[in-house]
Write a structure and sequence with these properties.
alpha/beta, eight-stranded mixed sheet, 8 strands, 46% helix, globular
């Protein structure tokens, strides 16, 4: 029986960090039978309270119809798929479809794809754009690459994760899409920090400046939902600076490989590295504004005013 023929395929989910926890929750809420594995078991307990089964090893999910992975780096993806007790290492069975939502290198993704094919497993790269609050609001977007036939089987399942699923090509195309997206994310955030500090040092409050910007043609979903952090200096992490640096490294490497000059990305990558060196490791990457302020000779204070982030949950 194909995945498409099953009303509710049985799901395995590997990796329940900030993003994975929310996405697995959406599948549970849609009525799917979900079993989860996380290296730190305690992080999976909230899903057990919602009806998920907790697995002790990734290989224990090998009998699931579809297995999702969402881990922090290429080495972690290798570990949970082809490493000891990985989901692709059972001598008896393998999942028909493996969907990876991590941000990893195209090279490692291709290796996993080859190993999956040896087991008869269809492998999709399904990179996502958003953060936990975006997921809650139902506004996550997904870029998918791999076999178009496999994509067709699981597209309805992927659609449960957010508001948009785009098939971008075969092979590792989705990896490049996500890396390009995250490089742009970093460059835009640094630029936003620069112009906001320019306005602040010239006597304009951050709240007033960003309200104007967000209502102008230059405003966007992104500038709006980052505005509360920039105004009130709440850097509760959605995406940390070290993770952003990893993505810049991947993006600049792709640029070198494809002979695409990326001077703005290279300059921003250095500023991200400087921010990490200054200790901004656990905070959200919007804390780039703190280093921009310091380099501009000013110290920021939280303005403590309500700011609309544009992410009210869908009803």
């Amino acid at each position: 029986m194909t995945i498409a023929a099953q009303e509710r395929p049985r799901i395995g989910w590997i990796g329940v960090g900030r993003m994975g926890l929310q996405l697995a929750t959406r599948l549970l809420d849609a009525g799917h039978d979900v079993a989860v594995y996380n290296r730190t078991r305690a992080k999976a307990e909230p899903l057990a309270e919602r009806g998920a089964t907790i697995a002790d090893r990734p290989v224990d999910l090998a009998d699931r119809d579809v297995v999702f992975t969402m881990v922090t780096a290429s080495t972690a993806l290798e570990a949970v798929t082809t490493g000891p007790n990985g989901v692709l290492t059972s001598p008896h069975t393998a999942p028909p479809v493996l969907i990876d939502c991590s941000t990893v290198s195209a090279q490692v993704s291709a290796l996993i794809r080859d190993e999956a094919a040896k087991r008869g497993t269809g492998f999709l790269a399904a990179t996502v754009s958003g953060n936990p609050k975006v997921i809650t609001a139902g506004k996550l977007t997904v870029a998918v690459s791999g076999s178009p036939e496999v994509f067709g089987q699981v597209e309805p399942l992927l659609a449960l994760l957010g508001r948009g699923v785009a098939y971008v090509g075969e092979g590792e195309a989705a990896r490049l899409v996500k890396i390009a997206h995250n490089v742009f994310l970093g460059v835009v955030t640094q630029s936003l920090a620069e112009i906001t500090i320019l306005a602040e040092k010239g006597g304009v409050s951050r709240a007033a400046f960003l309200r104007f910007l967000n209502d102008s043609v230059m405003g966007s979903v992104f500038t709006r939902y980052k505005s509360p952090a920039l105004v009130n200096l709440d850097f509760t992490p959605t995406f940390t600076m070290p993770l952003l640096r990893k993505d810049f490294d991947l993006g600049l490497s792709a640029g070198r490989e494809l002979e695409v000059p990326m001077p703005l990305a290279a300059a921003t990558a250095q500023l991200v590295a400087a921010a990490i060196g200054a200790g901004h490791v656990e905070e959200d990457f919007a804390s780039l504004i703190l280093e921009q302020a310091r380099n501009s000779g000013i110290t920021l204070e939280a303005q403590n005013v309500p700011v609309d982030d544009g992410l009210s949950p869908q009803t």
